[in-house]
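User: Structure with phosphoric acid mono(formamide)ester, tokens only please.
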Amino acid sequence: MQWTKKDILDIESLSAGEIELVFETAFGLKEISERPIKKVPTLRGQTIVLLFMEPSTRTRISFDIAAKRLSADSVAIAGASSSIVKGETLIDTARNIQAMKPDILVVRHSSAGAPHLLARNLDISVINAGDGMHAHPTQALLDMMTVREKKGDLKGLNVAIIGDIAHSRVARSNIAGFTKMGARVCVAGPPTMMPPGLEQLGESVARDMDSAISDADVIILLRIQKERQRRFLFPTEREYAARYGLNAARLSRIRQDALILHPGPLNRGVEISPEIADGPFSVILDQVTNGVALRMALFYLLAGGVRDANVD
Ligand code: CP
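Assistant:
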């Protein structure tokens, strides 16, 4: 299959075949990060700009490392240190960046649709690194890649997504992705954190956390998005932890081959207790490791690479 997409904006606009191609490419590139010299010349001469208008640790560093492992030049700029704070519009900022002839723009923004707007107005490739409550496609791709690596196939798996579904771009992208790849997705969380109309959209909504996780092959825990909530949506963090936190008591009720994922950053002791986050069911740091390979794969495909190209 040949890659034809200019941008990576959301999971919905990728086909199952394209997602498979991303996985295959990422698995092929993953071993570069295990070499003594973790660098190949594949994207030498390419320039990648990382424009992050919201805080980030994992996503920004992962994109930056991915670019460097492929020998692309990467330039990172944070919103707070850009001329956007002086009143320049996002489109003007992006057009000025494009005038410096980069090849790919990675953008994180608090407004849903901001990367789509840039993609429509720029000739260069745009990758969505998270837009408001809308989408986080590279997080969903690396989550699915991690499950695919551990379980062999996504088809037929039961995936439980627990927590703040309403405010989570990770939940939205993972629901779209796992469903597209043939998994069954069930969600659970406080009623105040459930977007309206989920059941009408065909999503399975569990009545409580225990019924969602009891038969799950994959459990994805979400961070409570305090920065996106306009009001407190649960009485206390202690109550949230008791009803929707994954802790040692709940561990005996899950499948003993279940995988536990979390996109990070963790609220330890709230949605996940420390012994679970650091325990044998957790693949949280595998997600982070795979994130680099996954983003290398996206750069490689967007830059016109073909799977069989020599990456030595
Ligand atoms: N998972 C994720 O997006 O983490 P960061 O906010 O640290 O990038």
